[in-house]
Amino acid sequence: MIKNIVFDFGGVLFDLSWEQAVRRFKAIGLADAEQRLDRFHQRGIFEQLESGLLSTDDFLQELGQLCHRSLSYDEVLHAWLGYVGAPMDEAKLNTLDQLRAEGYRTFLLSNTNPFVQAWAEGRDFCLSHRPLSSYLEKCYTSYEVRIMKPDPAIFQFMLRDADILSDETIFLDDSPANIAAAESQGIHTLLVEKNGSWESSLREAIRSFE
Questions:
Q1: Of 41, 137, 198, 200, which one has the fewest beta carbons inside 10 Å?
Q2: Inter-residue contact 117 to 47 (CB < 8 Å)
Q3: How many C-beta neighbours within 10 Å does residue 52 have?
Q4: Which residues face 171 on adjacent strands?
Q5: Dihedral sign, CA of 35, 140, 10, 130?
Q6: Comparing C-alpha atoms, which of 203, 181, 169, 176 is closest to residue 192?
Q7: What is the C-alpha to C-alpha distance for residues 161 and 169, in angstroms, rounded to an integer?
Q8: What is the torsional sign of CA 127, 86, 42, 162?
Q9: Which of these is catalytic: 8, 15, 32, 163?
Q10: What are 55-59's contacts with CB under 8 Å, separation 24+?
């Protein structure tokens, strides 16, 4: 029986736009943004930021060197939020509330960074001005845990910290590599279409484990 539901963030809870992010990073001076930004797993200083190896200030300095100028926090925040391809889908957020009301424990497990998470925890995240964390029991982010998916260790950390069992847990992600890593830890999974709807598929998956 499924008791715990774990969600990826980008591509699952909000729509991702790699193309828009590339345009915005180029606009602040990162000429080779296509090569430095990845659709699923960041590289270089972007990976270091999302794995907690670079602080926000250090990332601003490193990115500024690549762009050959000083960058402000707001400029870089705007560039990172290029990944947010559309306003938050209120129906998905309502589903999170409903799942918790039904007694499911719900979590986030995401490769992300302090810039995106600052937006997610701010008043501009959604129309109701609620932070992401108000919809979930706990958010596990790669930069805070200092482990990135698809490393199985991040799933092990979440299971221990939340005190949940893998065979009572289902994980939703749009990355086959992340899905495979979760399955290696005995977690049930649902591979969802990037930026797609998953509500009915999740209900079907939950019923299949009853």
A1: 200
A2: no
A3: 17
A4: 6, 189
A5: negative
A6: 176
A7: 14
A8: positive
A9: 8
A10: 56/114, 56/115, 59/113
pTM of the model: 0.96
Query: If DSSP states are collapsed to H, E and C, what string results for the chain?
Result: CCCEEEECCECCCECECHHHHHHHHHHCCCCCHHHHCCCCCCCHHHHHHHCCCCCHHHHHHHHHHHHCCCCCHHHHHHHHHHHECCCCCHHHHHHHHHHHHCCCEEEEEECCCHHHHHHHCCCCCCCCCCCHHHHCCEEEEHHHHCCCCCCHHHHHHHHHHHCCCHHHEEEEECCHHHHHHHHHCCCEEEECCCCCCCHHHHHHHHHHCC
As a whole number of angstroms, the distance between CA 194 and CA 172 comes to: 11
Give the Cβ contact number of residue 195 at 10 Å: 16
Concerning whether 89 is annotated as a catalytic residue, the answer is no
Return the structure tokens found at 153. 């260790």
Identify the CA nearest to 75 among candidates 60, 87, 53: 60
Q: How far apart are CA 95 and CA 199, in angstroms?
A: 7
Q: For 115-159, how does the pLDDT look when each residue is reduced to its tens digit (9 = 90+)?
A: 999 999 999 999 999 999 999 999 999 999 999 999 999 999 999
Region of residue 130 (left: phi > 0; alpha: psi -120 to 50; beta: else): beta
Domains and CATH numbers, the chain: 4-15+87-208 (3.40.50.1000), 18-83 (1.10.150.240)
